[in-house]
Amino acid sequence: MHADVVSLGAIGLGPDDCSSVQALESILNGAADCLRRLARANLPNPTAAVGRIRGTGPGVSFGRIVDRIESEFPFQMESPFEGCETVAGAVLAGDVLDAQRDDALLKLAFEAGSVELPMHVHEHSDRVVFVLGGRGFFHVSPQRLQDFDGQHIRHAPVRERDVLVFTRGTVHTFSSPTERLLLLSYHGPYISLADPQQYTLPSRRVCPMQGRLPVGTVSLDPAWNVLV
Predict the structure, then answer these.
(1) The domain containing residue 178 runs over which residues?
(2) Beta-ladder partners of 27
(3) Is residue 224 part of a domain?
(4) pTM, entire model
(5) CATH number at residue 36
(6) In a domain, 197, yes or no
(7) How many CB atoms lie within 10 A of CB 22?
(8) How would you label 203-225 residue by residue, b for 16+ Cβ within 10 Å and e otherwise?
(9) CA-CA distance, 107 to 184, in Å (whole number)?
(10) CB of 21 within 8 A of CB of 97?
């Protein structure tokens, strides 16, 4: 999906001196709005897009806002995550703010060398994923779950301040072959990690980076924002 197809808009984060509650609410609401904008664009499913997040005021930092959240709502990381020993995860459910919320933020840590998490889908939940640190890859297929054969996977390098958004049913995974990768993942709605419906594996198990190292290149981002 090209940047000129649909504008996902700004994710409205509070100022750098906001409270931890305001920061958490801002990220949850901003990610939910991003998904609503994507739904209104009537793009085919599955759909996945990548962008960047950054502060737009003096001294405003997305990373410091996340730190503010963690100061009051610490993530208790546990491994394995989705059956992968080198991946740890923790949940911060939106209902800590409002009992009516059904969304959540998950913090995920992929240790260097994490290439065993197979391609999978979330059939009942959409995602907005912020890269908090490190480097790795997002692997995604245009094929639906029932048609997935592992032949048409796109490998997108990701690093700090990248943002990924993808709809339920998108066959995907992450890997971190050489560096640690830290993610903040918005789930809308949140399906318990213990629920069998949380994720589904295709009939063919594929780990895109297992057994090979990526070939590195340096390139310009494919999309530009014209200022004048």
Answers:
(1) 20-188
(2) none
(3) no
(4) 0.91
(5) 2.60.120.10
(6) no
(7) 17
(8) eeebbbbeeeeeeeeeeeeeeee
(9) 5
(10) yes
Tens of each residue's pLDDT in the chain, 228 residues: 344 445 666 666 666 667 899 889 989 999 999 999 888 888 888 899 998 888 777 777 888 889 989 999 999 999 999 989 999 999 999 999 999 999 999 999 999 999 999 999 999 999 999 999 999 999 999 999 999 999 999 999 999 999 999 999 999 999 999 999 999 999 999 999 999 999 999 999 999 998 776 677 787 877 777 777
Tell me, yes or no, whether 5 lies in a domain: no
User: For the chain, what is the domain count?
Assistant: 1
Can you tell me which residue has the tokens 């994720």?
Answer: 199
Q: Could you tell me the sign of the dihedral formed by the alpha carbons of 77, 177, 172, 4, in that order?
A: positive
Task: Tell me if 191 sits within 8 A of 198, measured CB to CB.
Answer: yes
